[in-house]
């Protein structure tokens, strides 16, 4: 009987421990189940669906090149897998373990019906395995990272198999084009293709490009006008490349590569947080801030819309929000600035921003998104405080964002010199560009008053 290979966010053939284990057992039926029911509120957002479409097409082609293929099915994953097992005579399923709360529930549901074997393989170390001296989980990043580094390097990546044994009969597959994963009206994804080529080959292409400047990561990663970071996040999220592969490819680069490895550490850390606090995407890590008087009502709704559309009158914020819309990705420094702006300047609940990012990011990741939003908000279990309010008009020149703004905010493309950071103040704001939605000082005072009220 064949074995089922259940694929989710691990869409690769190399360094794929579930695939490697299944190959040892004979014929394999690789399957991807499009399941919007299990994650409910966290069904994939629009940008992720765009990515998924192309990633699945790429994976199917890669599988066909080694004698296999990808079976596509829709429905609740435990029911679909049980049905497929009956059709094919399979009774065993291999998969890579995932830590989103809905996937943990789904793994339990599948294990009730079938012989499910879960493997680790998407993180530097298995989430949950890095424990404190007394056997507990870390709450704060720095000690977690110190302990994780003791376990490094990760195991050497497994090679890509040269052939995958096929079953005597292939079960029926649904057609990817009928899944409707791509946007139609309006098609907001026209700019995505220029930046991204989803799939394992695209992931390695990005990784190879990044290898050449990994040593200078520390100097350039904070500058949005420069391509200083790896842009591997969607590839890592969908598991088109593993964290271990990335680590082994760059760890010897020297220079400031350790700063980069620390970011991979943040990715692992986010998983340990959602393992401890599964509803971290919607519940404050610090319950003392549950009473924070977030703004609601029509004015707040209009401000939220202005933020989403990149029309706040703060050029760095608007550039980031428009980059996000146009490409499905935003520079990390600018993610912090835009998130902070929504939460502190507009006093809008961080969960509104989390939802928007969830829908718009090609790398939308439950753990990383929740941890970073809560970190920025100061509502998280880590050390950051709500009262630390980022000043966008200071951040923008500090990180030399001028060209980035000119690229993403066409109304400001002609603004020269330092005026680009705050054309309003410099007296050269073009009429097409909105005035500031709120002044920095007024916003800061309002936020500080609000947090005082919460305590
Ligand atoms: P690099 O700087 O090259 O880093 C390498 C890899 O490390 C990234 O690809 C990513 O997998 C991981 N990484 C880097 N920074 C972080 C971090 N702070 N937390 C967790 N992992 C990190 N990242 C996501 O992958 N998905 C999200 O949904 C997400 N939401 C975010 C929301 C906010 C408000 C903020 C401030 C950050 C968020 N991040 C998220 C983290 C970070 O911004 C992105 O991972 C990074 O910008 C991706 O670009 P890169 O691949 O060039 O990163």
From TrEMBL:
Family: Belongs to the DNA photolyase family.
Cited InterPro entries: Crypto/Photolyase_FAD-like_sf (IPR036134), Crypto/Photolyase_N_sf (IPR036155), Cryptochr/Photolyase_FAD-bd (IPR005101), Cryptochrome/DNA_photolyase_1 (IPR002081), DNA_photolyase_1_CS_C (IPR018394), DNA_photolyase_N (IPR006050), Rossmann-like_a/b/a_fold (IPR014729)
Annotated keywords: Chromophore, FAD, Flavoprotein, Lyase
Listed GO MF terms: deoxyribodipyrimidine photo-lyase activity
Keyword Flavoprotein applies: yes
Gene3D superfamilies (UniProt xref): 1.25.40.80, DNA Cyclobutane Dipyrimidine Photolyase, subunit A, domain 3 (1.10.579.10), HUPs (3.40.50.620)
Keyword Flavoprotein among record annotations: yes
Top EC class of this enzyme: lyase
Pfam family, one: DNA_photolyase
PANTHER family, per database record: CRYPTOCHROME (PTHR11455), CRYPTOCHROME CIRCADIAN CLOCK 5 ISOFORM X1 (PTHR11455:SF9)
Name the record gives this protein: Deoxyribodipyrimidine photo-lyase
Cofactor: (6R)-5,10-methylene-5,6,7,8-tetrahydrofolate; FAD
Domain annotation Photolyase/cryptochrome alpha/beta: ranges: 1-124
E.C. number(s) listed in UniProt: 4.1.99.3
């Amino acid at each position: 009987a064949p074995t089922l290979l259940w694929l989710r966010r691990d869409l690769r053939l190399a360094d794929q421990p579930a695939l490697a284990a299944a190959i040892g057992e004979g014929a394999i039926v690789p399957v991807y189940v499009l399941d919007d029911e299990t994650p409910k509120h966290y069904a994939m957002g629009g940008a992720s669906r765009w990515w998924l479409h192309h990633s699945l097409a790429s994976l199917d082609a890669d599988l066909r090149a080694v004698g296999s293929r990808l079976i596509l099915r829709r429905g609740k994953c435990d029911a679909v897998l049980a049905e497929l097992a009956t059709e094919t005579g399979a009774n065993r399923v291999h998969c890579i373990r995932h830590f989103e709360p809905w996937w943990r529930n789904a793994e339990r549901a599948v294990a009730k019906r079938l012989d499910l074997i879960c493997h680790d393989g998407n993180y530097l170390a298995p989430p949950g395995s890095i424990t404190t001296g007394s056997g507990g989980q870390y709450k704060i990043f720095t000690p977690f990272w110190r302990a994780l580094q003791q376990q490094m390097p990760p195991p050497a990546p497994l090679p890509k198999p040269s052939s995958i044994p096929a079953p005597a009969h292939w079960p029926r597959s649904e057609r990817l084009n009928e899944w409707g994963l791509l946007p139609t009206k309006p098609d907001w994804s026209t700019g995505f293709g220029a930046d991204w080529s989803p799939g394992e080959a695209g992931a390695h292409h990005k990784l190879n490009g990044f290898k050449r400047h990994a040593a200078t990561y520390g100097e350039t990663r904070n500058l949005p006008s420069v391509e200083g970071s790896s842009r591997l996040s969607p590839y890592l999220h969908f598991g088109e490349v593993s964290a271990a592969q990335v680590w082994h490819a760059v760890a010897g680069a020297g220079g400031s590569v350790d700063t980069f490895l620390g970011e991979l550490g943040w990715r692992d850390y986010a998983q340990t947080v959602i393992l401890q606090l599964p509803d971290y995407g919607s519940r404050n890590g610090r319950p003392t801030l549950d009473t924070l008087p977030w703004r609601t009502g029509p004015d707040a709704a209009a401000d939220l819309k202005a933020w989403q559309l990149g029309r706040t009158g703060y050029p760095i914020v608007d550039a980031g929000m428009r980059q996000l819309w146009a490409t499905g990705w935003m520079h990390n420094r600018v993610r912090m600035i835009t998130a902070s702006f929504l939460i502190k300047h507009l006093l809008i609940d961080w969960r509104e921003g989390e939802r928007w990012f969830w829908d718009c990011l090609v790398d939308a990741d439950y753990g990383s998104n929740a941890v970073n939003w809560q970190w920025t908000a100061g509502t998280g279990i880590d050390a950051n405080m709500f009262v630390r309010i980022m000043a966008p008009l200071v951040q923008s020149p500090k990180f030399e964002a001028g060209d980035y703004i000119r690229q993403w905010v066409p109304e400001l493309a002609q603004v020269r010199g330092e005026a680009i950071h705050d054309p309003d103040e410099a007296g050269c704001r073009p009429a097409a560009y909105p005035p500031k939605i709120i002044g920095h000082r007024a916003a800061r005072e309002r936020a500080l008053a609000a947090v005082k009220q919460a305590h």
